[in-house]
Amino acid sequence: MIGAIPNPTKSITIDFPIQKVKDAIINVPKVFKFTHFRESNEMFNTYTFSRTEFLSMGALINVNLTEVSKSKTQVNIEISRQIGAFDSWVEVSKANDHISGFINALASIIKNGVPVTPQKNEEQSVIPVIVGLIIGFIGFFWLLKMFS
pLDDT digits over 7-50, tens only? Predict the structure, then answer.
């Protein structure tokens, strides 16, 4: 590819044990929207997430964890294109936003825990549909009577 730009990367060291970071990193898609877990290799502490983007095939977020000490973990993040390579500053800027968002989501989970999403009660989702159908039928018959 002509004019390809190297994949944006970021490396940070955080003051948490590697196991706590591993537990948190799996839950990042619950906080960082439009991010999906793809695969992991627990032996090498690598994780891959996909990130959807408007008008492109999206990006891959590759994360590698390294234990620096018992209480410190190095987190290496690399953003790559799902297809092709980065070739404009706009794409690199968006990739840097993905890095920032991923780090913020990881920090939020480590600090606050995994957010609990309330389970939808099936009765709650059926009631608006029934009310909408009743209103629709009434409107249909009212229009039918009006034009008859």
Answer: 999 999 999 999 999 999 999 999 999 999 999 999 999 999 99
- 1, pLDDT greater than 60: no
Tell me which residue of 4, 41, 11 sits closest to 102, measured CA to CA. Answer: 11
Tokens of 51: 């990130």
Pairing of strands 9-14, 35-41: unpaired
What CATH topology corresponds to 9-116?
Answer: Alpha-D-Glucose-1,6-Bisphosphate; Chain A, domain 4 (3.30.530)
What are the boundaries of each domain within the chain? 9-116
State both tokens at 28.
């990042």
Say how many CA atoms lie within 13 Å of 85 toward its Cβ.
Answer: 8
Amino acid letter, residue 30:
K
